[in-house]
Amino acid sequence: MGTTQLETVPEPKYWHLKTVLSEALDTDFAVGEILPNERDLAARFGVARATLRQALEQLELEGRLQRRRGVGTTVAPPRVGVDVSASRSDWPGADQHAWQPTECTVAVPPAAVAAHLGTEPDERTHVVRRVRKGHDQPVAAELLYVPAASVPALPAIDAPSGPALARGVLRELARLEPEGQDRAVELGSAGAVDAKELDRLPGAPVLVVTTRYFAGGRTAAVSVATYRADTCRLTFGAQGDLEISHEEQRRAS
Predict the structure, then answer these.
(1) What φ, ψ does residue 137 adopt, rounded to 5°?
(2) Where are the domains of the chain?
(3) pLDDT digits 0-9 by tens, 145-169
(4) Of the candidates 78, 97, 69, which has an alpha carbon nearest to the alpha carbon of residue 31?
């Protein structure tokens, strides 16, 4: 990547620099390659380091770059396609490979979740925490709220807490006959716990997917899954699995 001087442009200088850097990532760097340090990059483009940092932060937000402690800034792999369409295989416990349970507690859920479940405001539910990985890195963290009525055989399971109890809850939940589900997606920001799970800073942009699972004529469970907005691309079945390269995006803009 040779020395490039930025011309005067009507858009913010950092935004123009971001576009130039994005083009360079497509042609001059490989996935996982470490970028030169900020001083060298700023000198190559003839900009202040503050301008460079703004451009790098935007590229990180868009999922083009990853900043890793002790490593530096690297070129990010393509976004992970995550199918969030409603299907039987997505029923909690049906696919133990996509999500890995890490913990299970018993607690009063947030009011909004209790309303979805139709439970009393102070009624405690099983709360299963799971993580999902892609390209060997965490891409999503989930809290799955399961009322006792959905897993009546659970008290007979000798697993007082932790991952063993989480697997027991999921196993019992998988025995139910699904009657459908609905799903909502919204933009949010990572809380402290999710940020730690996802290796992000608190407040980082995330995609929050809330799912209600129905069985036995009622809501059997509610999932609140937090996906990294910089590494995930949500799809909705085969028709939604659309790939758009960065080059195509630039031509369309």
Answers:
(1) -140, 150
(2) 13-75, 80-240
(3) 999 999 988 765 555 668 888 988 9
(4) 78
